[in-house]
Amino acid sequence: MANRPNQKLRLLHLAKILFEQTDSNHGLTTKQVIEELYSVGYEAERKAIYRDIRALKSFGLSIQQKSGKEWYIASRPFDLRELLFISDLIQSSPTLTKELTDTLLAKIHCFCSANQRRLFRRQSETGYSVKQDNEQVLTNLEQVCNALQNKRAIEFNPSYRTKGGLSDTDNKKCVYPIKVELSEGFYDVTYFDPAGEFSTYRLDHMEQINVLEEHEKRSPTKKELVHRCQATVKTPVVLESKMEDLSLVHDRFGSQTETIEKAGGFIRSYVRAPLDASFFSWVIQHYPKIRLISPEKAVEAFNKKIEQIHRSCKMNRMLLSSGEFKELTRYLKQAVEDLIEEDRAGAKFETEDDFCEVAADKVES
Question: What is the DSSP string of 8-39?
Fold first, then answer.
């Protein structure tokens, strides 16, 4: 009877050994199980091992024996494919810092065997994507979700980025969160302030979030939400593409997208999309393979965004009109031809640097 507590602990250690060291491709013989138990301070005979395994199986663990020799865990909460997928999501998330990424990866590795962990180590050698430096992002997420559930206001410090990382401002904000959503790899919090003004802020740019005791003074009406947060409202739009480019639409909106064939080999796709910078950037990226056809308000919003970009770039001398570009090309071409003609006429250049220096003076003049 005195040994019974140890026997119960032995059962737990047996489950741990099987879970950590075995999988469908790697098992342990009964002799190896006995040796592993002995290494952690527990003695057992073969009959005891069989009895303990029957107890674990009756408890619900999926333990099987390969070819009547090796014991292994046949089923886990997550299979290897699912864990690899989760690992990829964690490593590619720009919201998480490198430290948080490492912590989460170590936690999910507990769901696989030691042999499977080697595959994760090889996978992680490819490196992380660009990572942020706000260590409190998961705490912030928990705080905002808590406020949403209990319909409470939150208080936070907006932060701005410096060479040394994120720096707080002293301008505390008290707002009423409406929702938090993942967009382009980052969490965005949509909220309204006591004056009824709506806005969206990056969660990883929020510092010192506190959930306040006061309840929401009021909930936003649907009309206000649509008016203030148009970027979160999905609008039915029509896109046009060739059949060979339809996969671009499917990649973003799904293969169940409703389509209609038009004359000339064109396909029109009917989707719902937010009229925001992300959607417009996607259209620009794939133009002219993808064209925004309707509705009129979507086309107008798209054209307005293009005009804003054009006007902004032109003010900063980053963009030339087609006429200006052609004029500049003609001028440079003539300047080079003049330099070549001078060289033929006797203006000798001893080195290539001499030629480049004269050419630069010509262009500047």
Answer: HHHHHHHHHHHHHH-BTTB-EEHHHHHHHHHH
Residue type, 102: D
What is the C-alpha to C-alpha distance for residues 46 and 170, in angstroms, rounded to an integer?
68
E strand or H helix at 141, and its extent?
helix 137-150
b/e per residue 258-277 (b: at least 16 CB within 10 A): ebeeeeeeebbbebebbbbe
List of the chain residues with pLDDT < 50:
1-4, 126, 163, 227, 230-231
Q: For residue range 64-110, what is the model confidence (pLDDT) as tens digits? A: 998 888 999 998 888 888 888 888 888 888 888 888 888 888 888 88
Q: In the chain, what are the domain boundaries?
A: 4-73, 80-124, 137-230, 233-315, 322-364
- Cis bond upstream, residue 288 (ω within 30): yes
Secondary structure of 248-276 as H, E, C letters: HHHHHHCCCCEEEECHHHEEEEEEEEECC
Phi and psi at residue 333, to the nearest 5°: -60, -45
Fold of 4-73: Arc Repressor Mutant, subunit A (1.10.10)
Please report where in the chains the tokens 């003695």 appear, as a residue: 43
- Tell the burial category of 290 from Cβ atoms under 10 Å away from its Cβ (0-12, 13-18, 19+): buried
Q: Give CA–CA dist 301/138, Å, rounded.
A: 35
pLDDT for 240-259, tens place per residue?
998 888 888 888 888 778 88
290, two tokens: 């993808």
Q: pTM for the whole thing? A: 0.55
CATH number at 137-230: 2.30.30
What confidence tens digit (pLDDT) does each residue in 318-351 have? 555 667 667 777 777 776 666 666 555 555 555 5
Domain 233-315 has CATH 3.30.70.240: yes
3-state DSSP assignment of residue 199: strand
Q: How far apart are CA 31 and CA 46, in angstroms?
A: 8
Hey, what are 38's tokens? 């002995």
